UniProtKB/TrEMBL annotation:
The keyword Transport applies. It comes from Ceratodon purpureus. Belongs to the PRA1 family. GO terms for biological process: vesicle-mediated transport. One of its GO terms (cellular component) is endoplasmic reticulum. This is PRA1 family protein. May be involved in both secretory and endocytic intracellular trafficking in the endosomal/prevacuolar compartments. The chain crosses the membrane at residues 76-95, 101-117, 138-171. PANTHER family: PRENYLATED RAB ACCEPTOR 1-RELATED (PTHR19317), PRENYLATED RAB ACCEPTOR PROTEIN 1 (PTHR19317:SF0). It is a multi-pass membrane protein. Keywords: Membrane, Transmembrane, Transmembrane helix, Transport.
Amino acid sequence: MAPASQPPVIPVSQQGAAVGVTPQQATFWVLAGKAQDAFNLALAQKRPWAEVADRTQMAKPESFSEAVTRARKNWFYFRINYSLIMTGVVALSLVLHPGSLFFLAALLAGWTYLYLVRTEPLVAFGRTFSEREVLTGMSLFTVIMIFMTNVGSILITALMIGAAVCFAHGAYRVPDDLFLDEQETTGGFLSFLSSGTVPQVMSHV
């Protein structure tokens, strides 16, 4: 009996060229995946909102130093909740200023085109720009445009309001009933930046 024929083997490109993925797009999706994992991990550490709003644990601090001590302890315990509160304040500020929201959406569209849609080298004024030059130029353009318009002041004001709200809660919330392991004081939304994978990925850009 003749042996069964084996199915043909389809070669797979290790660089992603077979599926049309550029190194910049691959880098973006790797970082996006790591950010998503860090975000999910951070949300898993979120404290119940009923515990945040427990009025029985509210008391006026006797001194400013006690207020600072309380705020520090509450920050480590409620840091995910406080981060969500500050994010909500920033989002509300942008919704109340649709012009700034549109401007940020336009910047996001520019970044999306450069790193998700574009597949060819960027050519302008008869010159081909390297990926490092594109990244540096777009970063500088973003920073300059944000702080040359009222978007920067809106974001800074929203962050200050959010920080003030979180500090006020932390100063009045008595932390005596809160227990936090030492290893829990690390991590958060940006914990993925501490991974050694990111520099290795970025080196390919």
